[in-house]
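so the lab meeting is tmrw and i was supposed to have these ready like two days ago... anyway. pasting both below. for each one the top line is the aa sequence and the line under it is the structure tokens. i havent really looked at them closely yet so no promises
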Amino acid sequence: MADHPVADHVPDLRHHGDAELRDAAVPIRLDFAVNVRVPEPPRWLRDRLAAGLDTLAAYPDATAATEAVAARHGRTCAEVLLTSGAAEAFVLLARILRPRRAVVVHPQFTEPEAALLAAGHAVGRHLLTGAFTLDPDAVPADADLVMIGNPTNPTSVLHPVSAIARLLKPGRTVVVDEAFMDAVPGEPETLGGHPDVVVVRSLTKTWGLAGLRVGYVLGPPELIRALKAAQPLWSVSTLGLIAARATCEPDAVAEAETLAKQADQDREHLLARLAELPGVSVPAASRAPFVLVHTPGAAILRDRLRAVGIAVRRGDSFPGLGSDWLRIAVRDRTATDTLMQHWRQAVATPR
């Protein structure tokens, strides 16, 4: 493990999986680059959203959605703020927090660091290596803001609650990105109910709502008040609020659990097929609906797959990783088998 200043490495923090789908020579027919888990929202959710179209003349009222999120996590409404996706949450946190030393645990989703930099903060990187597991005692003791993903994008590691809780100390804010926590059956390591941890969650991944932009922050009331004061009025649309309320209902939570269990099975199939490929390794214990892969020549492989309409996510835009890394989203077995077929063909083709 290592703690490095940002200047030591300047990856493209604004590169995300959707960029892999644009400007391809041929249309992308199989997307393993974007971590949205379904191609579209389920019918029942689309029906709820469609019914909300008649209410769009009124300004959004977040009261009911806030109550639903609070009930889902056993929090009070004063501990919940709905946001325009998790990305807005990171921007708001960067604007209202005043850390003396901010540290982002990498490799992880890059928007938290990008938001801190945009707000003028100096940022340190604590880089995890090997199996990408967290040693809380190795995080710089003087860091008064620590940001970490759980399960972490792109490593797919699910850190134990006990490890993240050990990051807490007087005068330190700990922010946990739980955008993929509902993709883990039972959510065993969630800190959504912890009164002293700031948790950011997203509805994008499980429910196919990347275009709607809705997420939320769970945290101490005084922090939530400050975030709300910094947030633009009516930041979350009426349809976003309908989605937040709907997906916190018991039937929706149960459906997310079913999807998470299916993703577990599909991920095991992906891991088994990857293990058949020479030169490919998966160093992390994968628990999320994506897998981080190391393979020499990954950049060439990615280009060759893209040329036949298959997108995978480059790894070198994540701090701590290089050009020999790829992130592969979990898809159904048929799609995975097709990926493996083209992967073998791409590797067999002379450079």
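ok protien two:
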Amino acid sequence: MAILDADRCYAKVNDALVDLWDYPRAELIGSCADDMVVGGRDMIASRWEQLVRTQQLYGERIIEHASGAQFRVTYAAHVTNVDAQWGVLVVTLSARLPDGAELIGNNHVEPAGATGARLTPREREVVRLVALGADTRGIAAELSLSPETVRTHVRNAMGKTGVHTRAHLVALVLSDGLAAD
């Protein structure tokens, strides 16, 4: 996970991101996230505008690792306030090498805490689909629920886990292994 500022620079990064990309934390903080994207600034300017306008974004990019290897990354981004500052929470949902080898994503992980125990099976199912990038209408159609019921499950899951945004919820469930099959 990372928090980007309004200039698309890293304001905060977690240990998992540092380990995945193998850049020193001090080198990441303050650097522009665009510099890691193959294609750079011109390629992501319109997507950034969409993110600012809609407050959330799911997508895929090619990222250059510190070693020079290129990874295909699927991410979720959500506008949020961190320490009373505007920012974007970016969560890496999956990362694959060019040969298709998965670095993170579908590996099964046992829940690390009590988060999973607090969510009902349906809430876990809905949150898992959110984490995989599905929107409310898509989840409703897949689970034969109304969109309002899906929103209720998401709200309940957010309340039970103490998070305030969908992106934070996604990050929490991914770290606890609740999005795994």
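from a quick look at the 2nd one: Helices lie at 15-21, 25-28, 40-54, 115-118, 121-131, 136-143, 147-161, 166-175. The first helix runs from residue 15 to 21. will dig more after coffe
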